[in-house]
Amino acid sequence: MNTTKTTHNRRSFLKTSLLSGGGMMLSVSWLSSFKSADKLQTLNLPEQSAMLNGYIQITADNVVKLLCPNPEFGQNVMTSLPMIVAEELDVDWKNVVVEMGPHDNTKLGAQFTGGSNSVRMYWKPLREAGAAARHLLRQAAAQTWNVPVEEVTTKAGVLSHANGKSANYGEMAGKAATLEVPKGLKLKAPKDFTIVRKSKKNVEGQKIITGKPLFGLDYRVDGMLIAMIQHPPAFGMKLKSFDALQTLKMPGIKEVFSLKLYEDGFEQGGFDTRTFNDLLVVVGKTTWEVMNARKKLLAQWEPVGDTKDVMAGRGGKREVVVPGGLESTSTQLEKMQELSQKPAQQLRKDGDPETAFQHAAQVIERTYNAPFLAHNCMEPMNFFAHVTDEKAVLAGPLQAPGWIEPTLSKILNLPADKIEIQMTRMGGGFGRRAYGHYLTEAALISRKAKAPVKLIYTREDDMTYGIYRPMYTATYRAALDANKNLIAFHVKGGGIPEHAIHANRFPAGAVENYLAEGWQIPSNITIGAFRAPRSNFNAAAEQSFLDEVAEAMGKDPIEFRLELLKRAKENPVGKNNEYDPDRYAGVLTLVRDKSGWNKPGNEKYNRGVAAYFCHNSYAAHVVDIVTRDGQPYVERVFSAMDCGIVINPDAATNMVQGAVVDGIGNAFYGALTHKNGAAEQSNFHNYRLIRHNEAPKSIDVHFVENDLDPTGLGEPPFPPVFGAVANALYKNKGKRFYNQPFQNEMDKRM
Amino acid sequence: MATYNLKINGKIRQVNVDPATPLLWVLRDHLDLPGTKYGCGVAQCGACTVHLDGTAVRSCQLPASAIGKQAVTTIEGLSAKGDHPVQKAWLEHDVAQCGYCQAGQMMSAASLLKTNPKPTDEEIDAYMSGNICRCGTYLRIKEAIKSTAKK
To answer: Which residues form the Aldehyde oxidase/xanthine dehydrogenase a/b hammerhead domain (chain A) (predicted)?
Structure first.
């Protein structure tokens, strides 16, 4: 990620969002392009409206339209972000119309969906935007009625004064848009919230249930062609030559060509990751025709060998060697085993762990492994592009348009203001759609084909392309003294191509002697962010290990963790501990109480607990497993979350429940393996995803109630699910599981 | 290429396509009915579920040549105003996260409830397990189905 740019954007956005309230501007541009909102049509929008700032538009006949700045991939930001604006603006939620905003980082902020950041980073600016607009409306009324602004009150979109005057926002919007925003606006106290903290239904719910064209794959324009790329059969291979004779004879096919994605020496940004650079492209009229004709291609592939990628970065550009070769999971595991025995990079050290281990009465050592995972967004990668010499119009599912626009600008040789990226609803993201290679590919294909083009990945293309969750391993060691006190803790983690270790996370800070180390093995199998990157492995391994240590110490696993957290709070070891021990303990005690941990009535369940801190929020789960038809199933889950103020409680609950199901599914079934460079899974017949019958019957979600500024929720509940599942599975099977996915380990060995 | 007069959502729609073209792509590419979704193309995910004479089928596996006079219903035709009991229950339970699989989920649920108006949890699991939801909204889907069954 280009952090510098993001930070800069955020700052300039804060400035702009307040400044732009003043002296603006009648806007008509995007109203005329608005077609599919049933609600809007019935409201009969006029052609003009007052744009009070980047997010808010109020028409003369009192339609309040709020723009969602961030792309939507199911985390419900199209509802929660506008709720934040509406709260301070003081409008009736029923009268609000929400629309996805255009890509415009100057008016709408950083506009990226990732890192569980949407609500966190927009909380303050959106409140300020709403408060600023409300103030301008009051000011406009005050001037019109010739009364002091302090005497003008608002309630649910209506301005009034004690003298009997009243007006709705629409009547004052035109005037308000000409006024200047004052400084130092006061925001509401949480106790006065009327919209935030009250559950609101998904604003796109009606469109979803009636099958409206919301997604990138649904986007089309007249004359649009369909394109598909034939990528090599294995990582480490590239296109040598091709014969398209038979393909070109197939009905509906326009052309077949190859092109280079990045020219030699192209400086890649952090999200320009791509697996294959030479693209073999089939362009035709319809999806089915292109899909079929592609099968007739006669292509020759050859090994790539070692290649050099040039990466742009904060410290200047650097070269990265991507090793050639056809990798297999079996040899990768052997290599990881070998590297795990060698010296590694020290990431953090407190006290004298070597001596403590030497003098330990008991040392517990366990190694955990996890495979590559494919994101498997239900909507496969796709993008629309229409590129001409003058401009580029693109539309589709993407988590961060601002991260990919500079790449397009360089490659297409077009200034940023000639590039329009429309954000469609995404059929899932999970981190995968932060990597915009498919957008760049679509743009190049459109330019070459001289036509509007939709690039479509089939499920097989999508699953075998890469950008996976990395393959991880970690060895944990705990030293106990003769009285079974934990005196030292050591984690050594590795991975392909990166390790997962967060050295400053729990239990760092809670153990006197502590060592964290990491190592990594380069690979040509591409990786990327996957829902709670790194944490999604750490929480599995570390939380299983702590369970085993607690057992060896003869302690209850929750009490053991609480004791460690007490130490971390009262007398923290070392520096830079990233977590707040109180909030961490808070979710543990909440889940303990709500689940009836150690209380009678739960005997039929095999129970496991885990807790984790990541992406600024805290999560704990108790997972209850039962045996049905000889198989362990997660029947019940209790979840406790601390993410500060919860904007939209029912939707937040939905997201936590989804993260729990996702975690159970990946813990039991998720795996992407390779043989001679080729992915061994290509579709849902051999990549197992969790299904209805494997989901828990209940997931009981609880939030810690506080008035802290909100933090993320898309990722934090996900990682500890793995650990809680592992710990419950131990109780069910009487045996610890160390290798994900657990179903494979059970099938092979039990 | 062949010409077919298909009965879709109560109307006769004429298409000229390769006989092997799956109904999914006839709907999406030829008839501008994109509510039916592509997820896997091999009948493993259920995103493309439509009704054929009232019964749920995977449209990605149904060639245009095999439809004949059977009536096809897609999510766009499940109800005139988006008020089929299943659609109402989906809104009431605010089921969707990303929403991509939900048309297929609802088409399966509507088909299940037609033949089995009061399904048990196990019957819901058995019928619905062909429909994957990557966001993990399974609990809400089941609640929505059960609430419809009660009415």
So the answer is: 210-305
Domain boundary among B61, B77, B93: B77
Based on the structure, what is the number of domains in chain B?
2
Claim to verify: residue B95 and residue B72 sit in the same structural domain: no
Q: How far is B146 from chain A (nearest CA, A)?
A: 13
Contact between A378 and B100 using a beta-carbon 8 Å cutoff: yes
Final residue in a domain of this structure, among A204, A227, A259? A204
What is the arithmetic mean of pLDDT over B105-112?
98
What is the mean pLDDT of the segment spanning B45-68?
A: 98
Cβ-Cβ contacts under 8 Å, A380 against chain B: 38-39
According to the model, what pLDDT value does residue A23 have?
A: 24
Name the pairing type of β-strands B55-58 and B49-52.
antiparallel
- H/E segment holding residue A471: strand A471-480
Kindly state whether residues B115 and B53 are assigned to the same domain: no
Q: Domains in chain A: how many in total? A: 3
- Which of B91, B129, B141 lies nearest to residue A206, judging by beta carbons? B91
**Do the Cβ atoms of A642 and A587 come closer than 8 Å?**
yes
Does the CB of A71 have a partner CB in chain B at under 8 Å? no
CATH number of the domain where residue A666 is located? 3.30.365.10
pLDDT digits (tens, 9 = 90+) for A441-487: 999 999 999 999 999 999 999 999 999 999 999 999 999 999 999 99
Q: Is the pLDDT of residue A76 over 50?
A: yes
The residues that bridge with A32 in the sheet, in sequence order, are none
Which DSSP helix (H) or strand (E) runs through A329?
helix A329-340
Q: Is the pLDDT of residue A747 over 70?
A: yes
What are the chain B neighbours of A427 within 8 Å (beta carbons)? 37, 98-101
Q: What is the average pLDDT score of chain A? A: 92
- Is A189 in the same domain as A274? no
C-alpha to C-alpha distances, A550 to A267, A482, A585, A613, A638, nearest whole angstrom: 49, 15, 16, 19, 21
Q: In this structure, are B64 and B107 located in the same domain?
A: no
More confident residue, A49 or A276: A276
Residue-wise over A305-324: b if at least 16 C-beta within 10 A, else e?
A: eeeebebbeeeeeeeeebeb
For A632-650, what is each residue's pLDDT tens digit?
999 999 999 999 999 999 9
Q: Mean pLDDT, to the nearest integer, of A325-339?
A: 97
Provide the domain limits for residue A98.
3-204
A435 shares a domain with A564: no
| Record: contact B96-A427, CB cut-off 8 A | no
Give A311's DSSP letter. E
Contact A379/B at CB under 8 A: yes
